[in-house]
Amino acid sequence: MISVNYHDDLKEVQSDGALSWLLSDKVQTAPFDRLEWWSLLAQHCALKPLLVVARDSSDTVVLPLAGGGVHLTQLSNWYTFRFRPILSPGADSAALLLAMADSLAGRTSRITLHGLPEADADLIARSFRSDGWIALCAQCDVNHVLALEGRDFEAFLAGRPGRLRTTLKRKSGKVRTQVLPYFDDALWSAYEDIYAESWKPEEGSPAFLRAFARAEGAAGRLRLAVANDLDGRAVAAQMWTVEGGTAFIHKLAHRESAKALSPGSVLSAALFRHVIDVDKVDMVDFGTGDDAYKRDWMEQVRPRCRLDLIRPRSPRNWPILIRHAAASLAARAKRG
């Protein structure tokens, strides 16, 4: 017997021992899959959580959604590298997701999920189609990663583009780098100051990022780094986390006024050296976005998908389906 429950109060989930354990760092080895991450999103990023939980006597599937009413979305935002359903080990995911799809049909008429790995998008799509939903899937982003396959830092560096290796050789003596495995208020203030003078857009939620960095520092997973010029001025800063054999590159910035020193590249090299030779990670994950500089460091590109789950009998969805059909016909005509 499968039950489906909805939780819009995450404190309620914390009181459920089995569920909070599944969504904790005892089981999940990426921050985006944990209750703590979703709680920070709800607290600092104006997201309204709705955790959908399907359970039988031994297995659980959690789909972290947001919003309310006729259109739900994923519980994530620009800080989230990827979104996926959370499965208990060995769960019969197809049966649980089918029960979830049937229950959600009585609650909403459309669900839009961004940032899904292909396998997860396919799993959800198949289950929801079995319950009469229309599932429209398309690539929406990419994820750059590095699989080290036993290489140390020097072996990894030898495989980088010649232009990058030359830059590091010429510029490494012009800045001094430091990598801290804990949260430091002064260094974080320097990061925020650097970010404000960088090429990047305004930070979406500084409070979220600070709270996350502080929590990861307390857990021993934070790698907070700074590069100072020879006058002692902080000119670049980065925030990474490390767990489960993976280093996640969350934030990086350098002052535009210090661009000639290439402080971002030099600091990245220091962090790669640290996570590879000290933390002994197997994988480095550079998140989403197809920025050119990521290709200098990463070696694989994985697609991220958008999945639109639609109830076809809802009139409010007909314009969406008509537009999709027209676009499909136009694409076929172009190919043919």
From TrEMBL:
Domain of life: Bacteria
Name of the protein this chain belongs to: GNAT family N-acetyltransferase
Domain BioF2-like acetyltransferase: 184-295
Source organism: Novosphingobium rhizovicinum
Xref: InterPro entries: Acyl_CoA_acyltransferase, BioF2-like_GNAT_dom
Pfam families tied to this protein: Acetyltransf_6
